[in-house]
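Researcher: Going back to the complex we discussed earlier. I've cleaned up the inputs and rechecked each line, so this should be the final set. Can you rerun the prediction on the complete assembly and write out the structure?
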Amino acid sequence: MSPQPLLQVNNIEVVYDHVILVLKGVSLHVPEGGIVTLLGANGAGKTTTLKAISNLLRAERGEVTKGTIEYRGERIEHLDSSTLVRRGIVQVMEGRRPFGHLTCEENLLVGAYTRRDGRAAVQRDLEMVYSYFPRLAERRHVKAGYVSGGEQQMLVIGRALMARPRLILLDEPSMGLAPQLVKEIFEIVWRLNKEEGVSFLLAEQNATMALRIADYGYVLENGRVVLDGDAATLRENEDVKEFYLGLSAAGRRSYRDVKHYKRRKRWLA
Amino acid sequence: MEVLNSLLVGPLRDIVSAPVFFAEVVVGGLMAGVMYSMVALGFVLIFKASEVFNFAQGAMVLFAALTLVGFMERGVPVGLALLAAAAVMVALAVAIERVMLRPLVNQPPLTLLMATIGLTFFLEGFGQLLWGSNVKELDVGIPDRTFDVGGMLLNQFDLVAAAVAAVMVALLAVLAQKTTLGRALRAVADDHEAAMAVGVPLKTIWVTVWSAAGIVALVAGIMWGAKSGVQFSLSLIALKALPVLILGGPHLDSGRHRRRSHHRRGGKNRRSLLGAAGRGGHRELVRLRAGDGLSAI
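Model: Rerun complete. Updated structure for the full complex:
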């Protein structure tokens, strides 16, 4: 890991509606040019962590009450989401969310809203997005509400790319998609990271896929980081195998042999 | 039989026997509709971009007209008074964003509707406090003569109003479809959180939209004020414009699509622990009634 990480989250606490404590001290690092994954079940706090970084919490009455978030050595908790996008952090929200009444191309152009470097540069990036997602090029004049789920997911990743980000906060790109598509999208994310140098913080439930492309991972449970390590280490961790990868010591398990008791986790949650 | 005859047959017979008069009535009706459409346009703008049903649109028409007349009464020339009134409407938009909209981000539409009802009372009271509550005459020099076209009596004022409305619709359509700002505006209308996530600043968008609605209100105020005097009842015209708003140009696809996307969003809202109660339900209701008809622009 480079001496100064691109993004550094230090021990943040997030409270919703002044009472509901959702994150209880989460710390993580994203190195420049890395893919870091955030694993966890529903309600573990993955999305909240991402929204705390992109400052979309306030709209949901959430607030970072403790800790700091630094981006390239600078505190960013107080910056609004528009400024953050201009600085290079874009979130791709869970559940796709394209602008349904806009055509695919218009969706991508809205992604370039914060750009001030001229039409030609935007046009170049549009072609870049189309080269990564050829299916979007075919659909460019179709309203985004009418394209398939997989295409919508590609569209929102493409839309984020149009802002020329250094860091994309990618929230559950696999949600509700066929395994084949999930694989395709993860491959593109990996290529974007290698070829365009975009760093990713990837929140996922699909741990198998996430650990395949990530360099480093954090496991989040009940608003706390319970485990972190290199992707390879995590893949070999017995608990991660059991609880997140669906493997047991004996390899892939059949539902016929499911026991009524569970292996105990080795960490405190 | 008598009744049926007079209801169903009589009118047709009249139409056939006096086609010119019939045409005159139809044209007159359309012209009246155009007048209402100017008010409806303001509703559409704000609803499209912020999902707020702006109950105060009528009050804004009244306020804009009062401001214009107020300036003119104090001896400001027409052109300058127009600019000043437009500036006041923009300032009002900035104030509304600051004081009313910003603290209410992500609240259910009904809360925002309540806030606009409050705004209605404020604007009605404030406008009359500033400029007085007498009925005032507004003369911006639009000719008001009737003339004869093939036996039909047409009012010149109505034609000017129709032209103004057409120009406004065209301008707003170009703004919404062809410009970066318009695209961002439609994006915000579709999903404002997603728009925020890609860096569209809601603040700018809202101020722009409310300014545009304020200026549309000013134009509507001028036309209505010139026609029937600047008076309190301008505020109520907005309610008559509602049918225009609801019937206005639905895209055939928008209903189905909106419903689908909103089920999904409703689900997410429930999960996020916040403002969960009632949100989905009311939202759907407001949307299905109004949303389907609002895709005019």
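Model: Worth noting: Residues 33-248 of chain B form one domain.
Researcher: Good, that matches what I expected from the previous run.
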